[in-house]
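Model: Ready when you are.
Researcher: Fold this.
Model:
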Amino acid sequence: MCGLAGIALRTGLAPSAATVDALTQALAHRGPDGAGHHVAGSVALAHTRLAIIDLATGDQPLFAGAAALVANGEVYNYRELREQNQLHCATGSDCEPPLHLWRRDGLAFTDGLRGMYAFALHDRASRQVVLARDPFGIKPLYMAEVGGGVAFASEPQALVAAGLVRPRVRREALAELLQIQFTTGAETIFEGVSRVLPGETLSIADGAVAERRRRAALPEGGPEDIGLDAALDRFDDAFQESVALHQRSDVPYGMFLSGGTDSAAVLAMMARLNGEPVTAFTAGFDVPGAADERAAAAAAARGAGARHVTVDVDEAMVWRHLPEIVACMDDPAADYAIIPTWFLARRAREEVKVVLSGEGGDEILGGYGRYRAAMRPWWMGGKAPRSRGSFDRVEDVLRAPLTGWRDGTASAEGAAFTPGRTRLQAAQALDVADWLPNDLLVKLDRCLMAHGVEGRVPFLDNGVATAAFRLPDALKVQGHTGKWLLRQWLAKNFPAAEPFKPKQGFTVPIGAWIGGVGERLGPLVAAQAGVAEIARPDRVAALFRNAAGEKHRGFAAWHLLFYALWHRRHVEGRRPEGDAFEFLAAR
């Protein structure tokens, strides 16, 4: 788990040392345990390391023959890759086997990998740079065309900090951010900065992209003919293998525990596989009536014999640290779950460097309520996911209607409906394509890496996806209950999780918090350059005063607050100093 960056220029040009240093410094928080670089001719690779596996000899870049590699993430099946392919590795690093597989297999070198990864590889013999990203997009990788070539980095802010791109907001992406809280597809909110897509491997030759290939996260085809008992056995085998692989670490690890089924399943399997009590971290809030999962999480922890650590998040903490929290989201996702995730990561770092969490369980096993709506035809009340945006019911706040905000989602919907898939499978595939990598996984990556913690997601494993995605719809959704198979598995293996209780969701009382300080906060948000450009100041102030009322107003106010803080940091370039009020008021 690290930060990587680099630049690949045309033949005859050379990257400047200052640029390489700036990229490295901008990613120092991702790798506090060391740094390294490789410069050869027109190519430079930079790396900052968070040491997790092979603490003694795992520094990067890694070298084999004429090839050099830097990586962000973990290749969990590195031991099996060594043995099966008879690889002779100079280190114990999990990221060295892919380097040898590149020399043998070329652009297909990632096909056998299980893990979360972003790679940058320079092969002097073939005169090319290769970038690759894991199929689920767990680990980030961005690129931009620059003068004379291509630059890339684990975070867009590094490209900005190094002076390689200017932080100009792309209007179409801003519309998406305000309406659905994240941005879709390959293009980011920054003009000229794009994502290496999940599962994509591309080659750069003489300063330009020469070839691309894509590895799918999900298996093709419709539902299989399999019964409940056989499906439970198959899922148990795949999930146990995945969690065992995700626990490979040379440093202490724990897990994030909510009151839901996904993290409860991770806890149950970790308890099965560990001889010592698992350390589980849970966040809770101080607002009366807010959805608080601490009691349910505590019951699950007791049932698993886990050591349970609670993190109490109060309103004062949120306002004090919100500029820092939003600042870490350079690829913006206005998901209010960034708040508890950031505080959980800060607390977890006092004891561990690795945490497992339940992201991906809803998407792989069919948990969201929107999936049930997507399964119905339109004449029976069915509707497409994300068919309504946060500002559709908020009148006159914005200066102009938001247009084109659903174009990226519509494009992904078309790609999700491959032959044989059901409506449910297509809705799941849509989320795996955009919602997961551009919201949930960005949240997990940035909030944890801000504190030097690695996040691992065992539901997002090709073995688990193969076992679960093609299950019959009835083993995912029955009536108003999603994740039917997972609930049945928990009832059999971990009844302390109360798997058939209604899904509550991971909610944050952000509307109540904003409404309580709306008189003071609204005018500050309205006065920000980024917000004043798109919204009417008087209507913004009114929206904030009433944010604690209807839920949709709270969401809209939160999205504007997030954007105000984000714009101030990542477009205007201000350091996140002071609390939210001081940061917004500073001149």
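Researcher: Now this one.
Model:
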Amino acid sequence: MKNIALLILFSPILCPVIYGQMPIDWTGYQRKSGISVTQTGNKLEINWPTEAREKAQMILNLESGQPLFYSLQVSQRGVLKEIASDLDPAFVLTIGKRDLISQNGWNIFFDKTNKRPHQSYVIGLDKQKASVQSMGSRTVIRVGDARAATFHGVVEITVYKGSPLFNVAAVMSTEVDSTAILYDAGLTTKKNVWNTIAWSDTEDKMQQTIANLTQSAKAQAVKYRTIIGQNKAGSLAVFPAPHQYFYPLDEAFNLNFTWHGRNYRELLPEFGIGIRQDLMGDNRWVPWVNAPPKTQQRLNFFCLLSADEPTQTLEVVKKFTHGDSYKPLPGYKTMSSHFHNEFVMSVMLAGKPVPQTPNFVNVFKQSGVDIVHLAEFHYTAHPKGPDSLRLLELKTLHEMCKRWSSKDFLLLPGEEPNEFFGGHWLSFFPKPVNWIMARKPDMPFVTEDPTFGKVYRIADKQDMLKLLEAENGLAWTAHARTKGSTGYPDKYKDEDFYKSDHFFGAAWKNIPSDLSEPRLSRRVLDLMDDMANWGYKKHVIAEADLFTVEPENEMYAHLNVNYLQLDQLPDYNQGWQSVLDAMRQGQFFVSTGEVLLPSFTVSGKKAGETIKLPKDSKATIVLEVDWTFPLTFAEIISGDGKQVFRERIDLTHTEPFGKQKFTFNTHLKDRKWVRVEVWDAAVNGAFTQQVWIDK
């Protein structure tokens, strides 16, 4: 295009074209958006306000063969400083094969994509066309064409009004079925852009190294998923979406999720900094990321410009995840569930030294988790006896939980029994309960043991329901419709135990991963709606489903949390019935941490409660939202017992770090339930439980 003169006379969607100048589609751009975009030759200049009367500037070079980021600047006390120049976005796309046959299609987890043939490609950008689009508080610049093997698309750059934050994405699709992918990404350069590269190590201490253009690339373990380039003018931080980027694993090991240096993976010859995924994962089940045909996969990363040192820059990045912890909310306590750290069997009953406070307890406390529901004895103990072993294991579990519970932290016993009902499920009782997962025909359901007290013996699903009723416990489907629960709870939705109030519902985790989705784990969100349409008041709780919990792990990326409506934590010694009551009544919301929902009502009724609609079926939804990344949309989801209805509300006008009470008026004619989800620009989100509708 560089050597061809173009004359376009009649196209209203293109700017005036001069010799060698790339045509740009401006039809989606709004000059009143507050973000200025101007073109001079093949340079595109974007200026946007950040905070406190400061601004950021990005100049893109659309000339073929030149680095895309001509200049990146941010102001300090009104004076622009050039943080970087002559940078190119770089993407390595690894393409493998998804197993869609042996289990449950795209919802598969037990896949070992890394063991099958796969190949990595550099995504090439051929600058042939561009567009500018205003979307509320953000502006999106798209440059095409981008290609790698069977994938094609564009490079997309999004700047956010109100912050020196921007997102860089290769938005790519393929026509090939059964495809699974991973991607590494970052910024590369041929010039001495950086003086040093900095990061926080896994012990939360800042580290740095000289930025040497001849230094071979290195995968770097970091805390907060962030790598920072620094020079005299300031810093540029590169980091991924905190949850969406990480495909599901059973472990939260820190697998060196950033990189810096030249010739990364022998595919990117220039010096760079960026984010990465380990192709081998935790060497167990490694399902990678779904890429169904024709879906727009957003291979993206975030950048933050700063005129400060890396330490101060990282502090700003950390604000987006509240320092990788769950923000306290008045009237709520945070709860996380489903952890197989197996401390009882691997340490306490293995004769190993027991520390004053185990690492896993410290990790949860530092993450802002108030209540931890364990899933111990996952194929490591003696659930069916003999009595002497099973009862000792339970006694040790209960003593462990009591020992490390306090007025500010509850460690609560739980198991993943996987007996009697079908599929995998979790148990949760409001106090210590002794039960054995076997009963011979001549043995009673409950006995008194002189050492351990009351002991239940369970023979079948009827016994299990009797135990839940007797001890006021809860059960729910773990990792529903995937892993060991493929086909469940659908297969037992007509069973008496499922219909019982003691069968709570299901649990939510981001399985599978799909970078084209605007929300996480549609698998369980769809199930949530299905269960409501089945006619039972079931709920969905967040689960982590992780094994080891250590300080060096990348815990936050794999965590999620439930905000239970509790004014205070119960005393462990008095039991924790209030925790189960809040769950059973739907008095909670689920969050990845960045989007919070402090209040939610439908015509004055809270989640878990029932409303009666007026004759015109109008309802007013009042929702208070607290967020870090700018929001993208809210969705009102309702059902009539057969169909699911969705009403999406655009929230792209929001800027980073806000708090607002929204009022939505909607019609709910013939509906039986309604709930709300909210999602942000990094695909973090939160969702309420249902408000039920009485005719």
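Researcher: Key takeaway?
Model: Residues 1-19 have pLDDT under 50 and may be disordered.
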